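Per reviewer request, we include the raw input and output of the structure prediction for the construct analysed in the revised manuscript.
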Amino acid sequence: MHEKWRKFWRENNTNAYDPKGKGKPYYCLEMFSYPSGASLHMGHYFNFAPSDTHARFKRMCGFNVFQPMGFDAFGLPAENHALKTDTTPWENTEKNMKIMRRQLEELGGMYDWDYTLATCTPEYYKWTQWLFVKLFKAGLAYQADAPVNWCDKCKTVLANEQVVGGACERCDTVVERRNMKQWFFKITDYAEKLLDGIDKLDWPNKTKVMQRNWIGKSEGASIEFPFVGEGTPQTLQVFTTRPDTLPCVTFIAVASDAQSKREDDKNGRFTGKYVINPFNGEKIPVWEADYILANYGTGAIMGVPKHDERDAEFAAKYKIPVKDEPLLKPAQWKKFGKTTTNYRLHDWSVGRQRYWGAPIPIIYCPEHGAVPVPETDLPVLLPKLKDFKPRGAAPLANDPKFVNTKCPICGKPSKRECDTMDTFVCSSWYYLRYPFAKRNDVPFEKTAPVVNKYIGGAEHACMHLLYARFITKFLHDQKLITFDEPFPSLVHQGMILAKDGTKMSKSKGNTVAPDDYVNKYGSDILRLFLMFGFKYTEGGPWNEDTLKTITKFTERVEKVASGSFVDKATPDLLYVQANSIKSVREDLENFSFNTAVARCMELLNAIEKTPTKESVETLVLLLAPMLPHLCEEFWEMLGHTPSIFNQPYPKENEKHLTRAEVEIAVQINSKIVGRITIPSDAHEHAVTKLCAEFLAGKTVTKTVYIKNRLINFIV
């Protein structure tokens, strides 16, 4: 039955997007997936199924909904999977994308596949390279010798945001600090703009706090500490947010060159060097310390154990003295320090020494240096290498046909850049490409639409989401688009956990394969189970028991859709129906899917007592975004022409939102003695009169009336 309706949708272009269609435009976008594994996992389904429900709901509410889907197909996960399975990244990725598309279609996703994209295709990465050239020409893409984060297992440089607790966020290998010539995007030029834009975003507060903290604006002072002895640099520059504590300094801590330990270990080593405190002339030892971040400030801090907990722990471990001296006033410390604004944010390292990525469009000429590939010569095609194993240097350097070229300025023999781009560059602008995926002449137009609702995991708070904001602000400054924030409204889905509450992982053998449940129950049952069994923004442990509840519920809906009807709805049914419509509309708007399903269950209970055709139709329409295949079938059962998604979503009749009469409990001394039916607008005096039979021979000393719920007489 599910395939019947998917075939109908394909043949009738039910899910086709018309940019000039009726209704207010609504761009609903889910973060696309990596086709690095064999298939989508349950976490993908928990993202895609409920968000598709939201998109279908908005369509039935009259919006012209655009909901595309694509694949984040470059990068280490896909390359490593190919190495592990002894295949090639392009073959493996193509195969996996076909599997994932099949799964997404089975899920009932309202995707127009004419607008799909894959970041590994030349049609896409041509424009990623175009973006790089734009940044280069604007002075925001540059190459420099700099300390970088090196993962020896992945054999590549990592951006600061990809280092978690001193380790690679992909493989958990402890990261080394190495000096390398590396490509960067100057995201620091946008630090203040990125901060200023956060307040206007409709995002989860936790995510906004994470971005503020990652950007890390600090007001403080830069202080020069002269070195002691000859043959050393003249001064050591230190940034501090507490220049008033200058008299209490007992050591200087600098970032370790190796940083072989995780950042929270508080390990250190005395360098054998000393500096002079410019305030009091005291000789201060210089230590290397693992808790100092090389990419924050100057990579050196004042050790003030009296006023900083981390400094105190370090001092206690290495028996460094603690000083308690009067603090300085601004007029005093400003003699020694220069007022400075500092950011934790450092420039985005975008070069990768791996194969499966977009080639960086730079040519090295012996006369003109680094020259961008002319936009008319893009894309720089990624060759299909047979040997792409990571060696610590870019695999593309082993392909002479790729490397050797001519300078676009002077025509002299030159060399291509062999590093590829971080895949976060590909995903930093993909939302702009979707509406123009059929176009080859431009990446997007200035009239590109903003994403109205963006859905995806909170783990991308300080990577993808930050990078996309930076690129969007750059493109806005270049007058290439009309807005400066990519995702004004954001929703994070929670995480589906294993039965014991731990994270699902293949290594633990506790993952749940969606295909097994789709084959057994059908994708609609799985959709509704995911929406009813978990709060969308929280997730929770896997529990299959709810699948039985959902199966029985859909069977009951089918029974009333195929059964006989009464002519007139009761006041009780009209009341439940109106309130169900109102609540479900609010819930689907706000991603409260579990309560929306519960409201539909309440309506079904009321319908089963006195089923009218109108009430059953209302229930099926309410459920349609959640159960797309089944509700098409139920709609046909009710004698209607498909597609149900061309119907308007139900609206409540306000006059039925309150009951004309209600039943309340009658209590005497807080114990229920009976129930009475009263007009819903009745006052306490009238209700008391109706309770006369319960009060015969009793003296009432106090009355407590809770409107339309109960009346309690104290006797």
